[in-house]
Amino acid sequence: MQKYTPFLSRLLLNMLEYIVVAIVVASCLTAGRLVNQSFSLLPPSLYGMLIFAIVLSIGNKTGLLPEKLFHAPMAVIIRFMSFVFVPVSVGVMQYGDLLLSSGLEILAVGISVTFSLLAIVGLLSKKLLGDESVD
After folding, report:
1. What is the membrane topology here (predicted)?
2. Are residues 61 and 113 in the same domain?
3. For residue range 54-95, what is the model confidence (pLDDT) as tens digits?
4. Rounded to whole angstroms, how far apart are CA atoms 56 and 1?
């Protein structure tokens, strides 16, 4: 029985890491839903992601939630992330006729909005980070 003790302790530690990460993510999503009830400008999941990012940065700085705690559980989530995009693919197939009739307009709007947001975020980050060479 003693030769299995390191294996079992490592297994329990891994399970505890997964449970802690699941609790943190679920708590942030719940907090995002609560924020959404007061400020319904964004979807609750986006509020939850913002709260999660704040919790991660504060937790990493204080040492309460070190970055390495999230590596293994997030690797599993990223590995299966492609399954999340299956409903999007079904939606694209369902609205194929709309994409055929207005596809170029939709593509133009998507590209222009993406580049506009990249430019705005880039300029804001340079300004907020103290780089005075903003053009």
Report:
1. Multi-pass membrane protein
2. no
3. 998 888 888 888 888 888 888 888 888 877 777 777 777 788
4. 38
Residue 66 has φ and ψ, to the nearest 5°, of -65, 150
List the structure tokens of 113: 């909005």
The whole-angstrom separation of Cα 43 and Cα 36 is 7
State the Cα–Cα distance between residues 58 and 16, nearest whole angstrom. Answer: 21
Read off the pLDDT of residues 42-51 as tens digits, 9 standing for 90 and up. Answer: 889 889 999 9
Report the Cα–Cα distance between both ends of the chain, in Å, rounded: 68
Same domain, 64 and 120: no
The reply to whether 68 and 91 lie within a common domain is: no
Asked if 32 and 47 touch (Cβ cutoff 8 Å), the reply is: yes
Question: Can you give the residue range of the structural domain that contains 68?
Answer: 1-79
Do both 1 and 25 map to the same domain? yes
Are 72 and 102 part of one and the same domain? no
DSSP-derived 3-state class of residue 133: coil
Report if pTM > 0.85.
no
Average pLDDT, the chain: 84
Two tokens, residue 61? 């700085």
